[in-house]
Structure formats: C-alpha cells, structure tokens
C-alpha cells in the first residue's frame, strides 16, 4: 500500500526514540567544528594595564594561547547564496514514523522534508523525489531524490547533492559538501559519496572521485583528490596553486589534513613532491609544525633564511624555535616561550648568535614579560630586558629601543582610588649616557584617593608618593643618589553662576621630604611645603543657526603659590622636559614631576572657539598665554614659559567626516618668532591610512637641547589596486639634513596566497651603529590554519557565467 502526496508540501517526519532519519546523516556529512579559543595579543613584551584586552574575561577556565604566529590578517570568504526562510509545514492528521535502525543513536529531533513527491511503500521504504530539501538541527540538504530503507537503516541519495549549515554561513566553522550521489550506512553517519567536493570554512576546497565517511563521521577520506584555496573557473580550471594527492584524510576532531603522496603545483606545473604531509585545516589556530618561512637580506648579514618551528605544549603553553642562517655570516637560534594561566600570562623572547660582525663573540638578547591578576583587584607585572648591545637589537630587527628596563610592577585601580608601584633597573644603550652616572636602580610608589566632602561640597583628593634612585658611581655630584617622600591634599569645587558663567575654586597643599647623598651642592635633608590657591572663571557663549553650532569660551584663571626659598632648593631630576599646550594651559603646575614646581602669582588666560557643521565636520581654535607678577626662577628665564609673560599659544584642530584629522600647535613671542611648532595629521578611510607629524623646537640648553630640532615622521598605507597594499615609513631630520629611517612595503593578497615584501634603510652617525639596508620576503598559502583580515581589499578571481 502506498501513501502518496503530490504538490510541494512540507512533511514533519519524526521517530519516537531515534534521530530523524536522513538528517542525522546530513549533520554527519558536515564535519564537526571544535570550540573556538580565546585570543591574546601576539609578541607583547611590555605589560599594558590600561587596556582591556579581554584576557581574563573567562574566569572559569584557563585561557588558551594566540595563533601560532602573527596572522596576515586576511579573511577570505567566497560568494554564497542566501539561506531561504524556513517554510511552514502543513499540518496532517497523521505522521510518518521511521523506526530506529539498529545501532543508531537516540534523538527525537524531527526533520522537515520538502519535495514534489513523498511516498512510503509496504517494504518500509520512504522515497522523496523532485527538488528535495531536508532541514534538521540547522543543516540543510538539497538533492534530487532520497530513498530511505527503514529495515536496513541505509539511505541512497541521488544528486546533485548540496549539504550546508546556513546558520554558519560566513564563519570559520562553515562546511559545504557537494556530491553526485551518496550511499549511507545504518548509522546514517558513515558512507560513500561519489563525485564529491568538500569545502572547509569557505577557504580550502577538495575535489575527489570518491569520499568516504568513517568512525561516525569523524574521519573523511578523499581518494584521487585535488586541494586548493584558489578560485577555480570552468573556462580556466588551472588554479594559481594546488595540491594533488593519492588520498587526503580529514580528522574533524583534531582538525588536521593528512596528505598521502602530495604533489604541489604552481600554475599547473609540478614544483615539489613529498611522501606524506600533515597540515591544519582552515579552522586551526594552534598546531605543532613549521610556520611561514621568511627570506631576509641585510647589509651586515647578507642573504638569510628563517624557518620557525612551532611546538604546542597543551592549550596553555607553546614554544617557537627559529633557526636563522645567513650566507655563512651568522648562525642564530631564536626562541619564544609563552604560557597562559587562569589569572595571567607570560612570554619570553630571546636569541643567541655567532656572526662575523663581531668575530669570536657570542651575542644575544632576552626579553620577558609576565602579568598576573591577584586577589582584590591587584595586578602584578614582571619584565626582563637584557641585550649584548644596541647594535645587536638593530642588526637582527628586534627593536630600536635605546633604553631597557627590568623590574616588577604592582597596580590597583578603582573608581575612587588608585595605587601603583614599581621597582627596577634601567640600562641605557645610548653613547652619551654612561652607565655609572645614569640612575640605574629606580623605585616609585603612588597612592591616590578622591571623595566628595559632606559639608563643603566639591571634590577632595589625597595623594601619597615615594621615589628613590641610585647611581653606581661614588663620585661627588655626578654620582648623586636621592630619595623623596611626598604627601598632597587638594580640593576643587565648580558652580554655575548667573548669566551662564562657570566659576571654580581649588586649593592644594604639597609637602616633600628629600634625602640627598653624594652631592655637596645640596643639603642632605630638605623639607618643604607648597600651598597653592586658584580661582577660575569661564563664560561660554553658544549660537545655533542654520544647523551650525558655534561656541566661544573665554577663560581666566588666577593662581598663587609662595615663592620658593633658597633653602628649599633640590636637584631637578624628574622635570627637565616641560610641555606647554592647550592641555595644560589652565594647570596649577606644568612641571611633570615633583622636583620642580611653579611659584608666585600668575594668570592663565585663554579663549577657545568651536564650529560644528551639520554635515559632520568640526573646527576649533584655542589661544592663550600665562602672565606672571615676576619671572619664575624654576624656568631659568628661558623657554616658552620663562619671563613675566609666556609665549603665545595658538592651537587649531579640524576633523571631518572623510576621516581626516589635523592639529597644529604653535608657540611664539610678541614679535611672532616661533619657538615651537607641531603639526599632526591623520587620515583614515577605505584604501588609505596616513599618520604624519612635523616638529620644530628652538635650541634650549636648560633642556639639554643644544641644537634646533626640525623633524618629520610619517607612516602611510594605501590601496594600489585590488589585492595590492603599499606602505611607507620615514623619519627625516631637517637640522642634520639626513634621513634617520626609511621603509617601503608591498603586499599582494588574493583568496589563496599572500606575498609580503619590504625594504628598509637605517641611517646612523654613531661610531657604534652602522648604516644598514634590509629586504624581507614572506609567502603564505591560504587554507592552512586560521587567518584573519588585514588592511585593504583582497583580489579575487572572477569567473564568467
């Protein structure tokens, strides 16, 4: 007896104690995706506490480590069809139930079948034909005909077959199976698919004459297979690169691809053959094996080659060993060790080298950093930085830092209080900074708290800090050691006055205790106290017309603190460089540290104007000046803040909807003679990234600047055309009329390969550093391991339809 329905109706076919008949197979045809791992920053050597990197977001499990190497930031997604809406099933007075096949797992999930014809004969065989679409647990199967045998539990599917999970479209877990025909075993997980194609994460595609599913769908075996992540067109079926193999085995649990007798081809030409090969599938973030090789050529080391080897030590640790050989001129082994804990992370980077730059010498470096979250919100940091010399760091392209710091930090930040402490050792790599006369051992601690007083209102704050540093020299003056303890109290209150004016009053009291050793120019012990009183008046005016908003705000601030007595004099170790800009125009004290402070009666005067256009762009101007009753000796009567009247400050800024931001800041005297000028430009838009700055500063011996500074720095990246991204970086010293650094880069990316090239020229006038030119080349094939997107677009091969 036959039950037959014509017309395109939906059928719900369920079972009382078993999985829905075919869709257990549909779900089994799509390889299972392993859980994603928590990502971390790669290559970080300095703890950064002010940024929330999400590292400790999951407190229940230990965090996993980052990808095996810095990805090329290229996420490749091919075009795909939109998933149709799930149709509403027609209700029927009776349902068709298929009994459980022997050995099948129990699952009462119903399946939805759409077909032109669905029949169930007396032999318990169900046949769906004519545009068959089957939905089950998010998996969609499209076929021309499906036959399910209720007695044996097997199923025969006639194609073309197309199996997907529309909910995973565009994600790394998306898998597509295409075949001409399929025959499934009784467990509806294993079977044979002929004329099959498997697409993983829309990157790696494998076409085979036959594909077998084994071990309940965990293992997929493809025979006589071709694999590539390149777009393949019917009119030109030869991809940019491909791997032909006798067999490819994909393990859905380990997410690995095993190639049997693979042959690598480029443009259809055989390039290399191997007995066997194991590689990660596109969803893998970490797996033991070789990473992308790098070719590097430098003036000092000649032509060289790097081949990193990555070793996983579980989910929470890994090691990367990188041998570096260069034209018999260097033998270097680089090492990186990383480990993640439930409450922190650590990373160690180092290298050891024997080269002909310094024959017979062993050179190297070691950088390490760790960060841990302690109870009650404390953060503990550890850093180690050691190097043979600065030239080694530059020769091997490690870092251009000229000062190294090793020590321990402890921080805790809350809404109304903060504590930070650090102790460590500085090592200067500069030629003009001798180690014995430069402070090496330095310790700092700072505690702050803010609250709102009950009776007087406003905001009160309390601060306590200590500092100590030591030089290794025992000579008088140049071997000075110093320690300081400070306490400060402050109060500020702001009120809105009649006519829209805003008034503010504040007061501070700072007390310092200094202990000075090995400097006969100062007393051994110095105690001082500095009270400060200030009153400020702002009167903002706003106008809105034709959608344009304009705001003008004049500000006058009067500040008083007593003149500094001669017996209170201490050496200025932490406030030698002073900034004067719109950010501290209305500050009570512009010295960045504690050793030097402003004193006397002074008026901080300024006015700002802002225009906000309805189209989204904005422009602003700020002008100001500081007037004093008499020159402040702390400024040595020099610089922009010296004398009774400071230089004029004029700042302009612009920001537009096109991603352009421009800021210029100038300091000049009454005769319009510039003492400082700074211009910064940023432009971020699709296909263009620019960050540039120009700085001019007059010579000022009080700041150890004996020559004028005129310097340009610029970093740019732009889209040349689809797939081509160019970058440039330069630093030019106009005073010395020479470049300090120049770098050019070019990157090509399409859907299956990334090629990176860069050339860099380093200039030097030092006796210990030589000029050097380097060239780097790197190639990465897509489809092996997880990769993420980078700047610019990706070139994709277009096929004629």
How would you portray this structure in words?
- This protein has 801 residues and is mainly β.
- It has a domain of 263 residues.
- It is built from 2 helices and 45 strands.
- The protein has a 26-stranded antiparallel barrel. It has a 16-stranded antiparallel beta sheet that branches.
User: Structural class, judged by helices and strands?
Assistant: mainly beta
Distance between the termini: 47 Å
Please summarize the sheet with the most strands.
26 strands, antiparallel, barrel
Shape: elongated
How much of the sequence lies in strands comes to: over 45%
Helix content: under 10%
Question: How many β-strand stretches?
Answer: 45
- Poorly predicted regions are 1-28, 30-106
Subunit structure: Component of the lipopolysaccharide transport and assembly complex.
GO cellular component, one term: transporter complex
Family: Belongs to the LptD family.
Domain LptD C-terminal: 362-724
């Amino acid at each position: 007896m036959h039950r037959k329905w014509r017309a395109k109706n939906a059928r719900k076919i369920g079972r009382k104690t078993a999985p829905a008949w075919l869709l257990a197979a549909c779900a089994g045809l799509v390889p299972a995706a392993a859980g994603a791992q928590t990502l971390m920053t790669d290559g970080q050597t300095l703890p950064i506490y002010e940024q929330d990197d999400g590292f400790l977001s999951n407190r229940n499990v230990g965090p996993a480590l980052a990808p095996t190497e810095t990805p090329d930031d290229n996420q490749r997604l091919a075009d795909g069809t939109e998933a149709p809406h799930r149709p509403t099933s027609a209700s029927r007075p009776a349902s068709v139930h298929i009994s459980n096949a022997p050995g099948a797992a129990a699952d009462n999930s119903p399946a939805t079948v759409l077909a032109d014809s669905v029949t169930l004969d007396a032999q318990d065989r169900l046949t769906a034909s004519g545009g068959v679409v089957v939905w089950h647990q998010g998996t969609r199967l499209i076929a021309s005909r499906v036959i399910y045998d209720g007695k044996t539990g097997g199923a025969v599917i006639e194609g073309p077959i197309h199996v997907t999970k529309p909910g995973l479209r565009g994600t790394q877990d998306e898998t597509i199976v295409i075949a001409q025909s399929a025959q499934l075993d009784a467990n509806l997980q294993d079977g044979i698919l002929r004329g099959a194609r498997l697409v993983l994460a829309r990157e790696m595609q494998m076409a085979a004459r036959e594909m077998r599913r084994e071990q309940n769908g965990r293992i997929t075996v493809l025979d006589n297979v071709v694999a590539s992540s390149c777009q393949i067109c019917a009119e030109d079926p030869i991809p940019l690169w491909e791997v032909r193999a006798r067999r490819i085995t994909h393990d859905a649990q380990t997410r690995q691809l095993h190639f049997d007798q693979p042959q690598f081809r480029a443009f259809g030409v055989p390039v290399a053959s191997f007995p066997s090969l194991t590689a990660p599938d596109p969803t893998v973030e970490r797996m033991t094996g070789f990473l992308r090789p790098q070719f590097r050529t430098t003036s000092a080391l000649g032509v060289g080659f790097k081949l990193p080897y990555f070793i996983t030590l579980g989910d929470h640790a890994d090691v990367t060993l990188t041998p570096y050989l260069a034209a018999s001129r260097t033998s270097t082994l680089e090492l990186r060790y990383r480990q993640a804990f439930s409450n922190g992370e650590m990373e160690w980077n180092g290298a050891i080298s024997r080269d002909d730059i310094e024959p017979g010498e062993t050179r190297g470096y070691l950088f390490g950093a760790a960060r841990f979250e302690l109870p009650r919100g404390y953060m503990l940091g550890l850093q180690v930085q050691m190097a043979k010399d600065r030239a080694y760091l530059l020769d091997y392209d490690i870092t251009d830092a000229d000062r190294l710091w090793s020590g321990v930090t402890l921080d805790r930040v809350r809404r109304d209080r903060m504590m930070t402490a650090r102790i460590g050792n500085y090592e200067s790599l500069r030629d003009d900074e001798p180690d014995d006369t430069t402070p090496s051992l330095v310790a700092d601690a700072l505690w702050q708290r803010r609250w709102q007083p009950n009776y007087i209102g406003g905001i009160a704050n309390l601060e306590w800090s200590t500092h100590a540093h030591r030089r290794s020299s025992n000579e008088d003056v140049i071997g000075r050691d110093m320690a300081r303890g400070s306490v400060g109290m402050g109060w500020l209150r702001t009120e809105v006055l009649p006519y829209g004016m805003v008034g503010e009053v504040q007061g501070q009291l700072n007390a310092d205790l200094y202990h000075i050793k090995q400097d006969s120019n100062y007393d051994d012990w110095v105690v001082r106290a500095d009270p400060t009183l200030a009153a400020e008046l702002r009167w903002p005016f706003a106008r809105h017309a034709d959608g344009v908003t304009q705001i003008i705000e004049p500000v006058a601030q009067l500040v008083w603190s007593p003149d500094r007595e001669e017996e209170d004099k201490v050496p200025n170790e932490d406030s030698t460089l002073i900034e004067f800009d719109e950010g501290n125009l209305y500050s009570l004290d512009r010295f960045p540290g504690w050793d030097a402070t402003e004193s006397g009666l002074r008026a901080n005067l300024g006015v700002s104007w802002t225009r906000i256009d309805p189209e989204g762009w904005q422009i602003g101007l700020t002008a100001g000046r500081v007037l004093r009753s008499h020159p402040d000796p702390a400024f040595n009567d020099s610089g922009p803040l010296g004398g009774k009247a400071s230089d004029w400050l004029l700042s302009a800024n612009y920001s537009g909807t096109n991603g352009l931001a421009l800021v210029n800041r100038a300091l000049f005297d009454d005769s319009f003679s510039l003492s400082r000028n700074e211009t910064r430009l940023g432009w971020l838009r699709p296909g263009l990234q620019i960050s540039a700055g120009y700085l001019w500063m007059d010579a000022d011996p009080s700041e150890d600047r004996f020559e004028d500074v005129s310097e340009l720095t610029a970093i740019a990246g732009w889209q040349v055309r689809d797939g081509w991204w160019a970058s440039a970086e330069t630093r030019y010293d106009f005073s010395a009329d020479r470049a300090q650094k120049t770098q050019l880069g070019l990157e090509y990316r399409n859907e299956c390969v990334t090629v990176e090239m860069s050339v860099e020229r380093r200039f030097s006038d030092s006796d210990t550093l030589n000029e050097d030119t380097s060239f780097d080349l790197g190639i990465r094939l897509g489809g092996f391991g997880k990769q993420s997107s980078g700047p610019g677009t990706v070139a994709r091969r277009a096929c004629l339809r």
